# Entry
Amino acid sequence: MKPDSVPEFTPKQIRTGLRINILAASSGMVWFGITQGLPLIMMLEALGASGVLIGMISMLNQAAMLVQIPASLLTDRLTYRKRFWFATTFPARFIWFIPALLMFLPKESPNAIIYGTLTVVGISALLIQSSSAAWWSWMADLIPEDRRSGFWNIRQGFCMASMLLTFGISGWFLDRFPPGSRTGFGIVLLACAVFGCLDILIHRRVPEPAGDPTPPGVPFIERISRPLKNSNFRYFTLVMCVWFFSLGLIGPFTMVYLKQEFHALYRHLSAIQIAGLLGSIGTSFYAGRLIQRTGIRTFGIFMILLAPLFNAAWFFIDASPVTLKLPIMGTLTVPWFTLLLSFSSLLSGSVFAAIGIYQLNMLTSVVPREGRTTAMAVHWSLVGLSSALAPLVAGGIKDFMTIHPVPLALYHGTGFSFMHVLLILHTGLLWLIALPLAKRLESVPTDMTVVRTLAHIFITNPLRIARDIYGFNGVIVASAAKAKTAVRQSAGKAKGAIHGILNNDKNGDDPSKFEKEVK
# Structure
């Protein structure tokens, strides 16, 4: 390994590597959006899978995180981690061709496809999680400390834009096929496998600095327990355990509930998810500045406080039609649940993405450099262990309440259902457990209090209240012309980043150009 005084890569090579990372991640989001989002869940629902089987998608992905600790015993001793990462992640993406091909076999029974797909989910998750800690350690060594916040914010913006297109196109595409057809799902899964493999092949070009392998002879228990002795690491991991458990309760079943209760079309479900992603994209532009002003601890507390507020929308929905008069598009009729949940998702998507940025920034900051791979594995394994049971618990609640419904009517006669129970549990977990734990994290000198943060955003200048509320949630109220301008600017940023990769970054080695070129 090179001495600390001799940099392994020039600033130009690092900037190019980070751009390649963003480009690869944008491709990988197509795979992620399909395997972790609406298309796969709706495919199992269309095949007649029970609530517990649908919940197993999330459960298998979360439970696979437990493999990170034994895998880290190997990778923590590696100076270079890229080969191991490629050897595990590429097969994990490639095997998604199997369920895609199964959908084109007309004589294949639904149960065979359901269990075959769940087997692929489990194997893929195990392979990916086995090198997950190595990837995090690789990124922590590669990304300069003064660029971490900006890089993760920009990367998330590109990833959310890619997922936005994935949800929109896949929802529109699946509605082109008649009910009961498997062809649409098969084509979507084929695209998923192709883009997933492309992600890994592109990411191979990202440079890898030499790591600090753990010296031989350090006992296993000491390696596992060492990061937990740090109070910030310990409390932060507990906060994330509660957060992911609460997400596991509601995540796999929101779209299933709308499909079964209101007979929602795929384009209605896609519109709700797209609204959430639009909010997520907006987060990339305000989160970094807000973190710099308030500190990462206060930022996380404030977002956890906000997150459950948007659950209220689910108690006021029905399927009644609403007619809208829109410029250019003319008259548009949509169900009330699509309109209300799209607006709610626009706001909640921003806050949920902000908590994701909070995790990325905090995780790469609280883990020690020595034994970093093992520390990452401990964090994600505990998160996976705590959240793996959530989808099964939620699926059990769904199946139980389907058989034993509660005779309670909500807005316009909509029945009280399993979804409302899960939303109440989600709110209680965040406010009663996650929030107090987040407050126990140690402050840093730049942290503002939550009260001062609220005052800065909403009170300091009353004339900016409306703008700050919308800006805080990634929403821009503008004319169609301004919207087109924003789209062109975003496209220009993407084009510039890709151009830099293809031309091997001819702008020199000035590190200060990173923010200008990527932001």
In short: The first strand starts at residue 321 and ends at 326.
